[in-house]
Amino acid sequence: MEWETVIGLEVHAQLATKSKIFSGSSTAFGSEPNTQASALDLAMPGTLPVPNEQAYRYAIMFGLAIDADIAKTSVFERKNYFYPDLPKAYQTTQLEKPIVGAGHVEIELADGTKKSIRIHHAHLEEDAGKSLHEDFHGMSGIDLNRAGTPLVEIVSEPDIRNAEEAVAFAKKLHSIVTSLGICDGEMSQGSMRFDVNISVRRPGEEFGTRTETKNLNSFRFMEDCIALEVERQIDLIEDGGKVVQETRLYNGDTKQARSMRSKEEANDYRYFPCPDLLPVVLDNDYIESIRQTLPELPDARHDRFMEQYGLSSYDANILSGDANMAQFFETAAKASGDTKLTANWIMGELSARLNAEDQSIKHSPVNAEQLAGMITRLVDGTISSKMAKQVFEAMWNGDGNADEIIEAKGLKQVSDSGAIEAMVDEVIANSDKQVDNYRNADESKRPKMLGYFVGQIMKASKGQANPQQVNEILLKKLNDLI
Amino acid sequence: MTHSIKDNPITDKKAMHQKTIADIIAGLNAGEFTSVEITQHYLNRIKQLDGTYNSFITVNEESALAQAEAADKRRAEGDAPALCGVPIAHKDIFCTNGVRTSCGSKMLDNFVPPYDATVVENFANAGAVVLGKTNMDEFAMGSSNETSFYGPVKNPWDTNTVPGGSSGGSAAAVAAHLTPGATATDTGGSIRQPAALCGITGLKPTYGRVSRWGMIAFASSLDQGGPMARTAEDCALLLNVMASFDPKDSTSIDREVPDYTANLNQPLDGLKVGIPKEYFEEGLNPGTEQAVHDALAELEKQGATLVSISLPHTKLAVPAYYVIAPAEASANLSRFDGVRYGHRCEDPKDLRDMYMRTRAEGFGDEVKRRILVGAYCLSAGYYDAYYRKAQQVRRLIKQDFVDAFEQVDVIMGPTSPSPAFEFGAKGDDPVAMYLEDIYTIATNLAGLPGMSVPCGLVDDKPVGLQIIGNYFDESRMLNVAHQFQQVTDWHQQAPTGIDVEGAE
Amino acid sequence: MTIERTDIEKLAELARIELNEATIAETTQSIADVLALVDQLQAADTEGVEPMAHPTDAVQRLRADEVTETNHREAFQAIAPATEAGLYLVPKVID
Hints:
heterotrimer, A: alpha+beta, 3 domains, 3-stranded antiparallel β-sheet, 15 strands, B: alpha/beta, Amidase signature (AS) enzymes, 8-stranded mixed β-sheet, 3-stranded mixed β-sheet, 38% helix, 13% strand, globular
């Protein structure tokens, strides 16, 4: 019998503010532990929060981008639980009156199908610190630099039906927040984290009991984790068992998941409005002024890429999805002047290398100008496609830009027609037998026989002859002999 | 313990502690004495007398003298801010950079803040000299000062009785003339009730008037700092410094601070005084009632009109408060977990054990009780019946006052149902203790300013008259209190036993 | 609303306060007394009354996004129960 998977996502995106949501501490990543934890971040007695306006602006930008209502009055509440990385033992978050109301996000699947995923709401909250699990004489170390970093938590409706949709949705959110510039999207640094609620049911039946797998920080992990959890739930039910509502942890390295806590052990969070903070009241003018500042969004950019660069919908999707990717493409295409070739190199060689090394395009060792420089030499015939791969490899390894590498490695292809003609003549002169065969062969078989001559010429030129010119001149000269 | 005033060659200096803050400023300005002299005088008195009253947790002898010296220097240079060289004391709830701030709790017995509360900063900027940190009920939870980790404060009027709470240390220190003025805080009556029981003047300003930054939170939507002194005029001088708009406190109100001494001498002609009938019902000590009536009659003589009013939801104030305050406190006090500062239990066997024992050891019974009550009122299934309901009642209580202030300028009644009671009298019965604040709690719920001024003695124990004002109407309240103090001398009465020999 | 020992135990767990076995009955009773006091609220007619979280009608101010804090780790950790390598130490955290 068939099973249907039901998935809902809760996505935490760190907002790209300079300072924290309630204090003037820096949010910079990677500093020495606890050097960015102020008295407030450490929950010292008597300290009080004052909210960061930029965090509100960013949350509102997200809301406007997903066509959601922006709350005129939003309220912070306290969510109470004890954990060493939560210094106040409550998280300041929004529950009853979140800043962003219901909205929707459109996704496109590989087969071109489009689907709308509803967003229940999105709210502002503060991030927790980190517990470091290295051993300090049997103790754990707590770093509170991250505590108080602003987050927008985006909560979807359970509209997602499989891992592909989940990943497409997650990627679309990534694309929206990076395009808006409200989140740097650095998944490996935890800038975006995904909690996945999964249940299975027979089509048409009520929702099944769901589990929540927390803190996934890569699209691949999400895909693998969903497959694993769906399989676990189906096996469990088919074996006569029951899914228990619980929180689970997935380890992307071992590809294994385990239960963290069941609902029975779940906290009673005792939410209530934070008395240290007042309601935030916004008017229409304020919200409209933010709408005016919205940059181009992924859907609009996708359509523009198709029109402006003549890309297929599929290619446009890949190139416009990630804001950094889109910027890379546009910069490189403009500089190289060859849109199609630029698109192919980005989606081919560059993406493959980035994926293999788990690197984002923002941190690509080959930048857009470098790639364009290489493509320019490919287009003007200085190098062949084969040489281009060598040049790319050298650029990736930090050997400089294309022209420097071409020069240093002596990779210039010979496009001097006189020189090529001389080489062709010499090869023909030394290949009487092959020329005879060619002359006597059926016309339809002749193209296949060219390979021998080309090979000999390229060998003579040490691989540097322009293959296109070689082909043209060779053909002309052989045909003259017929 | 009693002392009598004997002939003494240093009578002038003995008189020093009888001076009001206004007198001290005048004396310093006139060069009659220096800040170092008066500071040393108070430090000596604290040394000699506070063993009896226990009103201070920490005395800053060295830094106080250094501040006094600096103040004298500033004055000599012609740069004397408002309270230059005037000694005061801070309730041990205000964080003081480099000086232990315990909040009356074992939990913070070792806590030395690396920052100052805004209130502390304001007094430092005004040139005040800080004698020390005063005793208080643990985390400001109490009405008798019996919950302090540092032992109870004794009421200078009768050391067998409580000074009230939670600002009992500040109240007793002012009453015993160990400081001319002190800071305090009021969440449900913690300035006004001890002021009444110790026979001094205390003012809780409008919510948002005084910054809460660096003031250790009990119940954030109710807590408000304010001054305690012997006279209304002194309270005005202290409030001038204490009140400020503070961008670091989201609930601080951005509104100009007036000169609270400017209107003290306005006549009371035409003043309409609301007398809520609910404040004179059962449970009120007859002696207290008589003293309050006499005070009201005195004000009538000065031209005030008494208007009978009703605050119909008065009876619900204590129940609403004991949901809202514990609920907020239960979250506010969660940060005391033994991780970053304060007490941590010995050899925790795991994380849970560290939390459970640290908090069991660090908090006293009343604090624990309120945390548990607060957790209950917010827990799943009870939120609507308790917390939400209390918030709705809070609005009804506020509306009572809003309606009343349509008709009257100020509201008056008793501060506390009876004079000071003996230690242990309500110790086993939290509910009886909670009813001590029956007349003061509603103003905290509404965020209104309230003050207590001495208005009589019952069995040689002081009684307080409560004056409740409209929002930001502190100037008028101080004016009324000052005018009352021009024609009465209750505020000049002092307990016996506070004058000692040899205070050089 | 009656409250029993098990309720108190649950609350103590939520609030992370170890109960004293010797006084747990007393604690339960005193909390029951307080709840009896606050139960007087149930008699109030609050139909249609908007809950009030703050005494004034003020609204929140927002601050500009500026880094105003500097590193005071040394001063902050000088008053901490246990630190090492700039970290606060706690008994092993197990997820």
